[in-house]
Fold:
Amino acid sequence: MRRASTRLPGGLGVSLVAIVMAAVGCSEPEPGETADVLRTATAAPLYAWLQHGAAGLEARAIVNAGTPCPQVDVDGVASGMTERADAGAEFAVVSCTAPVSGSAGSISVGAQNLPAPSAAPQRILVLGDSGCRMTAGWYENCDGSGTGVPWSFIAAATAAAAERPDLIVHVGDYVYREAECDTTEQPGCAGSPWGDKWTTWEADFFAPSRPLLDVAPWIVTRGNHEDYGRNHLGWLRFLDGRALVPADLTDAGCPRFSAPYKVAFDEVDFLVLNTATDPNASGLDPSAQTRYTEDFSQAAGLVTAGRTAWTVTHRPFWGLAPDWQDPSSLGVADTTLQAAIAGMPGGAWPPDVEMALAGHIHLLETLSFRDGRPHQVVSGDAGTAQDAAITAEAIARNPQVFTQLGIAPDDFQSYHDFGYVLLEPATEGGWTVTVKDLAGDVLEQFQLR
Ligand SMILES: [Fe+2]
Structure:
């Protein structure tokens, strides 16, 4: 990997030429070449955004293969971005990164301005499970020209951006285009890219996400669609909140699990957890359950007594999912994670963990507990093919799932609507949690104190 992290005082001119020369590995530009290089470094990248990762706030950017990473300008101080991943097979793009101060007031990457981060976010938007499903036997109407409900993530991203959030949490499952479109089943996905490659990532996530990338910094977590063997290469190249080492992109070195990390704001700490690996199919040693107990225990160790903490995972600790073949039958999610929690010191999350944010179930759900467990919020309905609605009849037919979860049916709410969740500080203290559909209508609202 190339590095170009020279930090120089503000202004362009000769300093920028030096940065760009370092980035492209050249010693001296030919006459006429300097202007081209300057144009490249200051041009808008394909995509750029801010994200909170394990090492703090970062600017990330994607540029075409053969193009040097752009410069980042933070409060008038210019520096080069570091190459996170060079172009490779099926990925004709370079991903770039640079650390950014959480107190920065003005940030640009090349010619693109990025939103200033907030140390005390006031409008936190949570969404997940956003890609257009293309898999054997199940093809969504990705471009809207086919049959059935059109893929909703473009509308979801537009509606979510209109909320003017100052922090966005994506709870995972960014890419669902995993098989070639069968146009006899669904003409609305004709010609779509598929598989773990740049063109798929752009179509399924980056292009429709642009309004949200432009509006606020992100926290991201890894979904099971980003697990090894699915779309792990794009996840590691572009989004993973940890540093990337070349071995990560090999079959042998691809990390299935990863240690949790904390993203701290003035009034709340996020504990970001990787629950991507399928507990039932990993076949790994140690078992997924054992590893998740280790990760959760480590995350619990990051909790500061007296400070509010929320977990961010893809799989919910507690939730209900209808059977896809028989929606009148409900199943409990996620029994492996529940067993992993039981193995933590004290068998539970610390009391300062007051909310658990997740997706994976393609509905909007909230679960409240009377025994001190954190409030569970499932925001997994940002665009991909929905799960069936959980009807009153299904609830009445499945009393065992509420016994298993240790809640009454009234402590569980679900919504069969595309939408998202908005978190705002309440005037009387604590936080207001609002579940919204894409029309902006409030489906549910409650206070966390
Ligand atoms: Fe999932």
